Amino acid sequence: MFVKLLIKKTIMGNEKMKAVILGGTGLVGSELVKELVEHEGFSELILLARRQTGLNHKKIKELVINFDKPEEWNHLIKGDVLFSTFGTTIKKAGSQEEQYKIDYTYQLQIAQAASNNRMKSFVLVSAIGANAKSGMFYNRIKGELDEAVKILSFSNISILKPSFLAGDRQEKRVAERVGSIVLSVLKYLPFVRKYRPIHAKIVAKAMINAALLNAVKTVYTGEEIFELAI
Questions:
Q1: N or C terminus of the chain with fewer C-beta within 10 Å?
Q2: Domain 2-171+198-229, CATH among 3.40.50.720, 3.20.20.80, 3.40.250.10, 3.40.30.10
Q3: DSSP state of 178
């Protein structure tokens, strides 16, 4: 209840915000865009993408960029809050090198540009196993990104580390689907509760609330994400 009252007060006390969104067509990103379109606290949504997304709404403006040429778009990453839900799989990327470029390099370059352009807030979706020293490639690059963005000059940084994501994916992820089913069965056990599946819509709502709360540097995991989305 306290969180809801604080967020309501923040919305009423501030002007409408401009959000920049990286990864707006993905599982969490698409839910985030839906929520922001309806949210009274946001007046403009800038979607960063490699190609036209086809999304059409008076709040939405698309910025099609070549991620490999930051000199062409660095100065355009401006607004009040940057939301990043960007990411891929090794299967879709084709190699670890390409996945690293998408999951780490591109996201960090966008975050650096936003920081340099004095954007105030950054909300990043990471992963519950993210650790820069992990022996698992995916968890390691997520952890490396978490550490890299923490030192940027945003006034407010929120990193969300959800467990298995539930929702309608365009591509099938068998391992994640199996893990989600298993954890759904075991979710009531105390030591695995923080790993219970979480719907993309809940993560999206938590991202917005994290931005509105203006926490200085905060990491949300497991149950904290569910609570933040209320």
A1: N
A2: 3.40.50.720
A3: H
